[in-house]
Amino acid sequence: QEGCVPSILEVAKLRNPDATGFLTTHADFWFRPSTIVNETGLRLEALWHLKVGMGIRKVDPGGLHCLSGEEEILNDTSWHWFGRRNVDSWRAIDRLHQVYGYDRTVCPGWSDGWYLPRSAWGLFANVSSEFGPIVHEVAIPTVLQILHRHHDVPLQLDGRCWGGCGRLMRETDVMLKWPCGHRMDLVQQATRDTLESMLAEDLKMLRRRARNAKA
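Request: output the structure for the sequence above.
Response:
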């Protein structure tokens, strides 16, 4: 994601000059727009990212698992790191520290859905291109944290989503009870029907909201 997004943003700038931001999700991540974009969730001027959801045994109170310094990053065992990918992560963040002075901090995190406000598109492209070929569960939350801590881009961490990066939804009722989540099995007809019905009802709600706002 972090590797291809800068190119997508360049196209988006040309094709969508009035776009306020860029929302990306995995194909099997569901969300209900009327509840995701509201006063307690995604704000158009802020970064939006998911809390927890990674199967990490130790999560910081703020909702992310952030590690600082060579020893802490290389010796972390609270997450699987895809087989010692923490070594690559350390090298990448150390390189960014030497070039830009950013903290030597990496944050593995649930990255199946996130939002980038237009004001941060250029910054994201610059930082992510320097970060290198790191797994997106590390690159995305780390880059977003850099934008927040070092460039004062507002950040919203949302803990309302069901599931996690590797959890499979078994009952379609889950989609109706939670505003967002991962992952749904789109091979199943019942899942596709529930998703279509949920989005249709949500569209009606959004239209009512728009009419009431004009009244």
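Helices lie at 5-15, 33-36, 70-74, 81-100, 121-131, 136-151, 173-177, 189-214.
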